[in-house]
Specification:
about 180 residues; mainly beta; Jelly Rolls; five-stranded antiparallel beta sheet; 2 helices; globular
């Protein structure tokens, strides 16, 4: 597994070794010991899997507040997505900065997002499957969303033709959120 650092401390792109032959391929996408060697220690407790039928589906920006803040290990296993993580740690030198990466079934990349970040992804193809591990269970009481087009964040989605849930479309701007990182 190769670890690629981003401009934000603790936010990593991971590129697993993919072994292929005439039958197909194999890749190890998570190994607790290997991750610990890379400096990533997250005790994952839940796996999630989503399907988005149409290109242009945007999910996010989502997060959970303390004490249920979640670290995530995300990957796209069918199609491709633009994955975005936003630093929402108030004391961070990279506060409100974001990093995007294309994750796809073809490139096999993973994105490690530590606690204290908002997360969203935009489908770049039809029929996308997205899988992720989290280190805290879902908590409705700690759940929070930020509006995808908040000018305080300035995220470039690369398109204005987006498919959003009512929840994401009506999410508050950051200035109106009670985020406690």
């Amino acid at each position: 597994m190769e670890l690629v650092k981003t401009k934000i401390e603790g936010l990593f792109i991971l590129e697993p070794q993919v072994f292929g032959d005439r039958r197909g391929w194999f890749a190890e996408t998570y190994n607790e010991q290997a991750f610990a060697t890379l400096g990533i220690a997250a005790g994952f407790v839940q796996d999630n899997h989503s399907f988005s039928a149409a290109k242009g589906t945007l999910r996010g920006i989502h997060l959970q507040n303390h004490p249920m803040s979640q670290a995530k290990l995300v990957r796209c296993t069918r199609g491709s997505v633009l994955d975005v993580a936003v630093d929402l740690r108030g004391n961070s030198p990279t506060y409100l900065q974001w990093v995007s990466v294309e994750l796809s079934a073809d490139n096999h990349k993973l994105f490690f997002i530590p606690q204290g970040f908002g997360h969203a992804f935009l489908t770049l193809t039809d029929d996308c499957e997205f899988q992720y591990k989290v280190d805290q269970f879902y908590s409705k009481e700690c759940e929070c969303s930020i509006r995808y087009d908040d000018p305080a964040l300035g995220i470039d989605w690369g398109t204005d033709r987006l498919i959003l849930s009512n929840k994401d479309l009506n999410a508050p701007f950051l200035a109106d959120c009670d985020i406690n990182y």
